[in-house]
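User: I'm writing a tutorial on reading structure tokens. Could you give me a worked example: one chain, its sequence, then its tokens, then a sentence or two explaining what the tokens reveal?
Assistant: Sure. Here is the example chain.
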Amino acid sequence: MSETGRRIAITGANGFVGRAVSRALIVRGIGATGLVRRGAQCEAGVDTRFIDGLESIAPDAFAGCSAAIHLAARVHVMADAAARSQAVLEAYRAINVDGTLAAAEAARRAGVTRFVLMSSIKALGESDPGRPFTEDDARHPPDAYGVSKAEAEVKLLEFGSRTGLEIAIVRPPLVYGPGVRANFLAMMRAIARGIPLPLGAIDARRSLVSVDNLASATIECALNPGAVGRVFHVTDGDDPSVAALARKLGEHLGKPARLVPVPAGLLRGVARLAGKSARIDRLTGSLRVDSRRIRETLGWHAPLSLDEGLAATAAWFRSTQAR
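And here are its predicted structure tokens:
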């Protein structure tokens, strides 16, 4: 089937990654069907279909689609203690495990042949083992979200083996790009306002992926026969230090980052007292990800370099400040 004759369903099509996937499909002439909750808005050109939730999703939602990209998930990370409670874990499982399997079953019954799960590097861990994570590393998720993603991976691959539904899994690290929120946006705001950041002595290296690179790779996993039954890490191919990332953002924002060289150990100590250990650990620990498999197996290459991705993100941020 040619690309112009294809149609791919996207759960969570109204989200940050979902919108990027939708745009990329439309540019390639591939039909995009967005499965979202009532009241949500998708990108122009998306065939929007409303669902009440993953647990009750019907096969009709996937009608006419040959593949599905499953982005809908519970993603909010709560406070350190709450993120490890049993009640919170079950809440994550209900959406990220049970909901994923329900969506896969509905898609299979509708005639979908390929189901791509957007997982997370958190299925493996919060910091790397002294080298970049590979897809074959053991899963040691750090919190309820990571546990739910790890369990979803295992159960979905088992589901595919049992039913014949083709499964592919994508594991991104930190995703950024125009429209980014959370800590990445907070860093840009601080740099733009000239607020000193205690990151000058942080040499921890972190892999990143621009949302447009992630969209490109995810679509490749939905189309390429070599993706079936495989897990793929996706990155920009560059692992900057936290300090270097801040400096590069400052260059693109036209506002040099003011970095104060505070020792990582001191930062972690203050964070423990403030109950912010998880947030500081993410800044002071390395999380490098090996993404050679998708390049070597599928022949995929990131359309944007890290610098190009950061430039686009900074341009978007500047445009929001001018409004």
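What the tokens reveal: The chain has a mean pLDDT of 93. The radius of gyration is 20 Å.
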